[in-house]
Prior knowledge:
The complex is a heterodimer.
Chain A: H1 2-15, E1 20-24, H2 48-61, E2 65-69, H3 79-88, E3 92-97, H4 104-112, E4 117-121, H5 127-134, H6 139-152, E5 156-162, H7 171-181, E6 184-188, H8 208-215, H9 232-237, E7 247-250, E8 255-257, E9 267-268, H10 274-280, H11 282-289, H12 311-316, H13 325-338
Parallel strand pairs in A: 1-2, 1-7, 2-3, 3-4, 4-5, 5-6
Antiparallel strand pairs in A: 7-8, 8-9
Helix pairs in contact in A: 2-3, 8-13
Chain B: E1 5-8, E2 12-17, E3 20-25, E4 31-33, H1 36-44, E5 46-50, H2 51-63, H3 67-83, E6 87-90, H4 96-107
Antiparallel strand pairs in B: 1-5, 1-6, 2-3, 3-4
Helix pairs in contact in B: 1-2, 2-3
Amino acid sequence: MGDVMQRVWDRALSDGIPLSVHFDLTYRCNERCVHCYLDHDDHGEMTTAEVRAVLDQLASAGTLFLIFSGGELLLRKDFFELVAYARQLGFDVKIKTNGILINERAAARIRELGVRQVQVSIYSHLPDVHDAITKVPGSLERSLKAIRFLTAQGLRVTIANVLMRQNAGHYPAVRALAADLGVDCTIDPTITPKMDGDRSIVGLRVTTPQLLRVFRDKSLIADTACEPLASDDEVLDARPCSAGHTACYISPYGDVYPCVQFPLPTGNVRQQRFDDIWHHSPHLEEVRSIRMRDLPTCSTCSHMSTCSRCPGLAYMEGNMRGPSSADCEKSQVRALAADGVTIDREGACA
Amino acid sequence: MTDVFIARAPRLAARKVGGEMVILSADDSSLYVLNAVATAVWEAADGRTSVGTIVADVICRDFEIDRESAARDVDEFVRDLASHGILRTSDTAFDNDVAEDDRSRELA
């Protein structure tokens, strides 16, 4: 599947097709996760008719992969109606949920509608740690119950395990839990600032010693042959990521951004057709014009070819052509891990 | 095969990317990318049009292929995709649900 899928992405890139769209249907939520970047008040989310009209436009634009997320998207009373409509339009639908509202009947309906993948957030195998992060007592138990309902339907489920200071050491147990449940598990140490620019939650990011332990964990390294590194010119000519090129994000209020982690306003589908925004937004054109060689700091960095720099995080730090400090740290720690360096709790190298 | 009716299977995602239909199965994530002729057959597989009509009215017309060659190619393609559960075949036209589903796709 890899090569064929890559060919599809390459074609989408050359034809300017938004192949993948992340669509948050609501920012309302029934959890209050300590690291969440959203404002959960409803400031006028799109109506059913508005969302359906946007889905029509995305289908016409060539979008295949549709990620429905939130907030907790099952809080929308029209959730199943919108999924059904999206499936009718031929989208490949993935949903991201905390699972709290998924009972046996909901799981059966999700399966019946042809959703291909469901992602459920699990922060720890320990109820007190998970529930302290979501601020909802009993939430781990309910999320795990939802996963069992979903897998009983034969649905493909992935546990998303976001790492923070308070749960950084729990990922091996969460992965074991996922294996017991027969589901995939991804771990991610990314904590983004709030969408309004408030950086207070960034302090929850894992510490450098915690990150080093993750990067040194051999069980997390894929059992595949490494591809040869690209030449410097290939790296310098590369696009920073797919945001704004073959992918974008739509908020519950109709705002279109290059990515959920890249809140650069490019237009609003309540005021313009999606196609007009996608093809004519000056901000999207600017994002698309950027190559690695245009990044003044990163293009001269020794980690450039292996860095996972996120342009959205850089934008939130004030400059979409600048470095993202969180990714700089990851690159530095990854290099230390490769060199066999250890770091004590205070951060001193040994 | 010319009297057979074909319809797209329901648990699939599909979108045309650069003239080729990309199809993804919700059940096992299988991926299919159809060439231009196969894409035309897929798009015409509304459950109400026979394979013979698709060959004559779509494939021969749009691709300037003689009817015999077109029928042979389409026959092979239909058998192949039916064996993967991507197309459904029937000796009679499919019911209205398939037709409704098809109209929604056309609107998109």
